[in-house]
Design a protein that fits this description.
- The protein has 306 residues and is α/β, with parallel strands linked by helices.
- The protein has 3 domains: 79 residues, Arc Repressor Mutant, subunit A, CATH 1.10.10; 107 residues, Periplasmic binding protein-like II (D-Maltodextrin-Binding Protein, domain 2), CATH 3.40.190.10; 104 residues, Periplasmic binding protein-like II (D-Maltodextrin-Binding Protein, domain 2, 3-Layer(aba) Sandwich).
- Helix content is 42%, strand content 22%.
- The chain contains 12 helices and 11 strands.
- The strands form 2 sheets. Strands 3, 4, 5, 6, 7, 8, 9, 10 and 11 form a 9-stranded mixed β-sheet that branches. Strands 1-2 form a two-stranded antiparallel ribbon.
- Helix 1 crosses helix 2 and helix 1 packs across helix 4.
């Protein structure tokens, strides 16, 4: 067998994105290149390997056995390169360089503010923020794509180090003209009869609320389901149903009277925000400093209650 021509790091990086996303088009969007450019690099990699790495079955792109092997090697190489970058960064005395943070959508209401403060304290840091749903967070964690992850419930299926750093208060809410607004001690069974706007399956908030009702032998139906707090808030404001939201997400709406908190037995739920990273992750100096910053900061809760 002829000796394989070593691929370039760029070819490995692009093929890893194609393998993970299952699509040349989605991989191109992720790396901010054109689809023909990514397709050409994959073809060049196949020529170096001497075997087909992908195959099209219907509309779906699948990896061949050779493609699976190359994808696994690409992940290993890119991880080692990231470790090298982290180690070199640690050799520098100043806090500088990129910090990649992925957060669940509800954390958008406070995490950018904390990143802004951190950036002002360390001007040479380059924060990169990805806001998405829990399912995508877990995918990014599996692919080791970020330094830190912010979520309401640490995953059990991944080897991670997770530390609580902020209180997350979940309350039932409705539009101000809902007949339950103003009532005291509303029983859970009464809420179970209402139209409920819920988070997507897998959401930490949804799981916590479901456990509260299940403890009383109750279940909630789903009137509507969204994976974004903004969409849920608009549904509540429009009178489409009751929802369970984090106090972080409703500061403006509560102040303006667009949303009302319901007095329901068993609520509010007091949960925690967690900052997590993979156990084997070598954090850069900048990422480690931001982690310490999150764990030490305590001003946000005071601001929310002000």
């Amino acid at each position: 067998m002829d000796r394989i021509i070593p691929p370039t790091v760029q070819q490995l990086r692009l093929f890893e994105a194609v393998a993970r996303r299952g699509s040349i088009t989605r991989a191109a969007e992720e790396v901010h290149l054109t689809q023909p450019t990514v397709s050409m690099q994959v073809k060049a990699l196949e020529e170096k390997v001497g075997m087909a790495l992908t195959e099209q079955v219907g509309k779906a792109l699948h990896l061949t056995h050779a493609g699976e092997e190359v994808a696994a090697t690409a992940r290993d190489v890119l991880a080692r390169l990231a470790d090298m970058e982290a180690a070199l960064s640690d050799m520098q005395s100043e806090v500088a360089g990129p910090v990649s943070v992925a957060v669940v959508s509800t954390a958008r209401y406070f995490l950018p503010q904390l990143l802004g403060r951190f950036k002002r304290a360390y001007p040479k840091v380059e924060p990169r923020l990805q806001i998405t749903n829990r399912e995508t967070i877990l995918e990014r964690m599996e692919g080791n794509r970020d330094d830190l992850y912010i979520m309401g419930q640490p995953p059990e299926e991944h080897a991670v180090i997770a530390e609580p750093f902020r209180e997350n208060i979940i309350v039932p809410v409705a539009w101000p003209h809902h007949p339950l607004v103003g009532e005291r001690g509303i029983p859970l069974r009464r809420i179970a009869e209402e139209n409920v706007i819920r988070r997507e399956r897998g959401s930490g908030t949804r799981k916590a609320v479901e456990r509260t009702f299940q403890a009383e032998g109750l279940s909630l139906g789903t009137h509507m389901e969204f994976d974004d707090s903004e969409a849920i808030k608009q549904g509540v404001i429009s009178g489409l149903g009751i929802a369970f939201l984090s106090m972080h997400a409703m500061r403006l709406e509560l102040a303006s009277g667009e949303i009302a908190v319901l007095d329901v037995d068993g609520f509010p739920l007091h949960r925690r925000w967690y900052v997590a990273h993979r156990k084997e992750k070598r954090l850069t100096g900048a990422a480690r400093t931001f982690l310490e910053y999150l764990l030490q900061d305590s001003d946000l809760e005071k601001e929310i209650r002000a």
